[in-house]
């Protein structure tokens, strides 16, 4: 019997032995995911009613509601699986990066044609995703190019339509999560996650791709190269939110990372220290729209912030992943 | 074409004697990049039975390669988004030429030669414009850059020369990337991959898209049968809960046929096909999925799924003289024979994504 147990043990990754994943799956779902999407629903509801009350782009109340709702999206923006991906909901909330300038084109088209789709939420939901969501609303509120285009009545209707559509998508994701919570916490044959390991992999992937997106895209895109920095490519630069998005995403990812590493205090400590370093760097950086990428001094600090996220990624990939029994092969990891 | 080819072979033998042909390097059936047990990345020549006929050092992890039709010359591409490729003399390991992508371009890791071997074509990203390009290089003149033309889409990955020797099939994967942001996919909600047929000068002859609900299914790798049938392998960029087909067949002027395994097997692929190949007789077509650890085979005539083989980290796949040959990231080289998968060699190498056919008759 002893010999047999030994032989079986050899066939399993050591770390995968005797790990009960259900408590972590439950905790992440109940304390990280569901509250995040509930907050987004509430904040986008406020955004919607605020836009109904006052649609002036420079309205302090509207801009504050916009900022709060966008904050709550960024805090769940790493949870890109399941309900967020149905019907392109997440892409309809955030069409970014917009490498071909589809958002200004879509907005210009709606305004110059005075498209009546803004009159009902069903019709507006059928229009181009590039002209919807937080980035479309940002241009309507902050970009001088849209301050005078078309009639003020139409612009007002468009702002209200976008706000309503944002709330509609947030509510749809939130509603689906009420059922999807069970999918994620009770894997099994016939379910989307056939095993607890697969459900854990989904959460681990959310952490690693979230870190990757913040480092490579939120920071990497404006950084460009030393010879060709790209300040105009910073995320939500018009509303001066680029750095804020990095900070908020790191705070949300820290919460997820600590919940995933709860059974491994040593790794949790390493992760927490690395996250705190990165968040500290973000908080001490006085460059809200990353325009500093164009100056040598500014670049150094933004590159240091990016590097501190790469340090978190290293711990995630080399310590947390293997400990959770998540590893990948030479080709399956690489992809091309 | 045969006469011209015979002529060129004769020419190579007579006037370019110092440039050896493939027989001089053990007549490999394939080339593949690998991580070797000593930690070095190398390009290797492989026979269908699993013998390694040569190995050459690479400066970093390789991806695919292009084999010169006559000379034992390999163009080894770095993993994307690499900006250089090496033309290596496979007999000596010497660097014959170095291809540097033009400013604002990078390679995607695949390419093909013209039938007479005088021109090399490479898939490239013109990343500031976000447009796919095909670079043209003068293989007869130290691989000087001759120019480039549009690939007919975004993110061209694999390309093959059709049996007529005058037409390319190009897999425009549709995914826009920029070296500033690594492999981050910048345009998923709007991506629209296509299969483009063009002349050697870039004139587009035909383009095929998948139905709109499949617009996030990236057309990535190609296989060609001698009768002109193209098979393409797909990589799904949409919701992983969906399990769309990952194999397509197309013949010029005809409709696309998409092939599916039963739901349970299809789900196991995890939306990712790494390589694709026809069996030598063209009766079956197969894909590998390293993420699913599986190889799927289909009947070309009926389109029916015939079998699945569980193979850990399987990716490289090619038509050998006597059947489909595959490689894995765990060092296995094997062959599909009849209804079974047979491991013919267990090596210490981690074989990379692709098996590139060498000396295939065009």
Please tell me about this protein's structure.
The complex is a heterodimer of chains A (336) and B (362). Chain A is an all-alpha fold and 336 residues long. Chain A has twelve helices and no strands. The longest helix of chain A has 34 residues, at 152-185. In chain B, strands 1, 2, 3, 28 and 29 form a five-stranded antiparallel beta sheet that branches. Chain B has a four-stranded antiparallel beta sheet with strand order 4-5-6-7, with no helix packed on it. Chain B starts with a helix and ends in a 5-residue tail after the last strand. Chain B has helices at residues 2-15, 263-268, and strands at residues 30-35, 41-46, 52-57, 62-67, 73-78, 84-89, 95-100, 105-113, 119-126, 131-138, 144-150, 156-161, 167-172, 194-199, 204-208, 217-224, 230-236, 247-250, 257-259, 275-278, 284-289, 294-299, 305-310, 314-320, 323-328, 332-337, 340-346, 350-351, 356-357. By secondary structure, chain B is mostly beta strands.
Descriptors:
heterodimer, A: 336 residues, mainly alpha, 12 helices, disordered N terminus, B: mainly beta, five-stranded antiparallel beta sheet, four-stranded antiparallel beta sheet, 2 helices, 47% strand, globular
Topology, element by element:
The complex is a heterodimer of chains A (336) and B (362).
Chain A (H helix, E strand, L loop, with lengths): L1 H10 L10 H32 L6 H15 L14 H5 L8 H11 L8 H4 L8 H10 L9 H34 L10 H28 L18 H19 L4 H20 L11 H28 L13
Helix pairs in contact in A: 2-3, 2-8, 2-9, 2-10, 7-8, 9-10, 9-12, 10-11, 11-12
Chain B lengths: L1 H14 L14 E6 L5 E6 L5 E6 L4 E6 L5 E6 L5 E6 L5 E6 L4 E9 L5 E8 L4 E8 L5 E7 L5 E6 L5 E6 L21 E6 L4 E5 L8 E8 L5 E7 L10 E4 L6 E3 L3 H6 L6 E4 L5 E6 L4 E6 L5 E6 L3 E7 L2 E6 L3 E6 L2 E7 L3 E2 L4 E2 L5
Antiparallel strand pairs in B: 1-2, 1-28, 1-29, 2-3, 4-5, 5-6, 6-7, 8-9, 9-10, 10-11, 12-13, 13-14, 14-15, 16-17, 17-18, 18-19, 20-21, 21-22, 22-23, 24-25, 25-26, 26-27
